[in-house]
Amino acid sequence: MLNLEQYELGNGLRVVLNEDHSAPLVAVNLWYHVGSKNERPGRTGFAHLFEHMLFSGSEHVGNNEHFRYIQSVGGVLNGTTSFDRTNYFETLPSNYLALGLWLESDRMGFFIPALTQEKLDIQREVVKEERRQHYDNVPYGTSFERLLNLAYDPDYSYHWPTIGSMEDLGAASLDDVRDFFTTWYRPDNCVLTLAGDFNSDEAKKLVDEYFGPIAPAGGFPPFTLERKPQGTERREVFESPVQLPRLYRLYHLPKMGAPDWIYGDLLSTVLASDKASRLDRVLVHERQMAQDVAAYIIPTEASGMMFVQATAREGIPIEAIESAIDDEIAKLVSGGITDDELRRARNRAEIEHAHHVENYDERADIIGMMTTYFGDAEVVNGWLDPYENATVDDLTRVAAQYLIPENRATSLFVPQS
Amino acid sequence: MIDRTQAPLPGSPRPYHFPHVTRATLDNGLRVLVAQNHNAPLVSMRALIRSGADHDAPQVAGLASIVADLLDEGAGSRDGIRLAEDIGLLGGTLGTGADWDASYISLDLLARYAHEAFEIFSDIASRATLPPDGLERVRAERLNDLLQQRDEPAAIAAKRFSGLLYGKGPYGVPMIGTTETIPAIALDDVRRAYREHYIPNNTSVVVSGDVDPERALKLVEETLGGWQRGAETPRPSVSAQALEANRVYLIDRPTAVQSEIRIGHAGVSRASADYFPLSVMNALLGGIFNSRINLNLRERHGYTYGARSVFAFRRSAGPFVVAAPVRNEVTTESVQEVLAELRRIRTGDVEDRELNDTKSYLMGVFPATVQSASDIAGRLLDIELYGLPENYFDHYRESIGGVTKEDVERVAKKYIDPDRALIVIVGNAKQVREPLGALGYPIQELDIDGNTIA
């Protein structure tokens, strides 16, 4: 059990403290509740481009100085953007807690004065290179983008990936950056988590001093995201310069944390995790038709996603892989799963959770996630309970209910003819 | 009111101590290290077999990694599926692999099952069955891996760079083998390599995490004490090609929207007395985000998402290489900027602030990199692999702290040579060929297998 203390400042900033003196380190972690989900068509990729901008200095911190301040005292740092949130974090020697709070509060409260066109132009190029490196210049690089395009309607903002399109990245202006900051980067849209070696009373005082004076903004723009059921199966075959065909599939699930999402998580372990899991055993090991298989879910707030993917061995048509996967899912639905399979899946959930809270940095991040999505940091301490209580019938029911053609999108990458 | 215009001063530092390590050597020569840590109810078990792909004969390159891949295909009385089932019931994750220096077995698991896990772990280390059908499956998988790499620009660049630098021997032929060598590996080769290298006197076992050291030692002794000693095989020598002058090798990838650039030459072995000055110099040059090469190519020019330099410190001298993926249009400029940074670091033009920032980063970051049970196990494996002193990590910070500006200049002059470097570019030849001529170096075009194109 993690010892957690949570409270809110007058300006709406939610703060969670996890005091733990086992190593002389402190993790400072901020979750802003904004991600690519909040973008509109024509400005995709903006939340992520913005994340880059937030490393380029603020009123009292010069360009590139944010990195320098932290690295030069032995800290590690980064930020990431996803559909639903953007996080910023550093792990510092514990006697530098105030430094982390100073830097984070400066970019939360004093970012706009340091903004320049030149910084935007450079970061826009860097992000375009990031897109080239991870999407456009590598085999299967656009698979995630294609699958999202297929699975979600254009007005549902999981339709596009956080990296955005080259065209939209080119269109982002300084005014866009300012508007985005003013709308979303504010204390009442943020969770600040500290984990590690500090005295809670002293930490509270510092947090008050650095973040307390930052004013909250007005209301949030109206925002709704309702996914209409797909209705029919969605499927595409895409020719691309790859050597081996690969299947990418998305099954819709309820949102993260819902009971059926938890069962879906366990189910994905039963399907593909180690050699003894269903798809691994049959497709990779026994029939030796697949080079690799994977099944997993990712934490998404608005609606859930389970991914299944498999690469065909040389000479095996992707349709054979697809029907073998469907056969295994059908067997799972009709024959159920075993108690041992459920136990192994639970064990895996337990070890993954233990890894998440083992180090201060990941621990602070998962606390920030739980507080942002569920409004209560204590959710982290009860996270495994529904996993422990899941039954084989729960998993079989979820397989029967969700792993069906009308609830899936499939993108097949095949070599160019 | 706080003063926002100044960075706040630090408090007084809290002491850091690397965890206490309990050590033992069994009668059969097996070295055992145990470190306790209670961050989480987890235990990490590692076996380090001090033979890696450097032992592979050229005609069966990839052998060490094939042996490692086969370890989980069956051990003791369990076949591969049964192993996975039983490990899953213990909340465990098994990994096996080999690199140039060594072969590895790793088992991470829930602490409450540690007792049962030792038996499986010892079976994999000393009683792997290496079944023939497993070999055929792993072989086919490897050939498909090699096929997939033909589309991956970073993999192509790494292969061609190493091949040009080290030729047909260790470090030159890929450690995962080639389409010629993988089919040539026979079951006898696999079993002989396992018998020869997986012996207790060539192995260290590390256990870390939520475990009582005395109990862990006892369990290792019970499960691996009967493992039979064998004769140790001498380590083969490794040599790089001498380069006379800079030379560009261009590998065409017609669909490329970025050039994968590799610039470098032979580096230094891990045993070098200059290890610490080199670590500081490289961090400043291109080893960390705020290093010269990354700030230049990324933050000043916006040419790349990230560029870095690395000394591959292996048991013999691995390469020194700068790696940067950049958009096609700025390929030549990027090569020029990298070479300019390599020249500048040799002139002794190093600011005090820059040097101090780098050193305090390397000193300060150490505790953050050894938080988890598996982090600690990894550091102990380094000690065992490279024969470092037992108290190595207790003095790590002082060793970094002692590096001077003169040291940085000296090792840069000695180990970096921007006039005798390989420049490998995997990119869109039609777009980059002509601009690259501006470098003034000879350009040789190769296909992705390294064959010369006239």
Gyration radius from CA atoms of chain A, angstroms: 23 Å
Number of helices of chain B: 16
Q: Assign an overall shape of chain B.
A: globular
**SSE topology string of chain A:** EEEHHEEHHHHHEHEEHHEEHHHHHE
- Mean pLDDT of chain B equals 96
Our count of helices of chain A gives 15
* Assembly status: heterodimer
Query: Roughly what percent helix of chain B?
Result: 25-40%
How many domain regions of chain B? 2
What is the CATH class of the largest domain in chain A? Alpha Beta
Task: Give your account of this protein's structure.
The complex is a heterodimer of chains A (417) and B (454). Chain A is α+β, with helices and mostly antiparallel strands. The longest helix of chain A is centred in the first third of the chain and has 20 residues, at 117-136. Chain A is built from 15 helices and 11 strands. In chain A, the strands form 2 sheets. In chain A, strands 1-2-6-3-5-4 form a 6-stranded mixed beta sheet, sandwiched between helices. In chain A, strands 7-11-8-10-9 form a 5-stranded mixed beta sheet, sandwiched between helices. Chain A starts with a strand and ends with a strand. Chain A folds into 2 domains: 5-211, Metalloenzyme, LuxS/M16 peptidase-like (Cytochrome Bc1 Complex, Chain A, domain 1); 234-415, Cytochrome Bc1 Complex, Chain A, domain 1. In chain B, 39% of the residues lie in helices and 19% in strands. The mean pLDDT of chain B is 96. In chain B, strand 11 (308-313) and strand 12 (317-327) form a beta hairpin. Chain B is globular. Classes of the chains: A alpha+beta (417), B alpha+beta (454). At the A-B interface, helix 2, helix 3, helix 4 and helix 12 of A face helix 2, strand 7, helix 4, helix 10 and strand 12 of B.
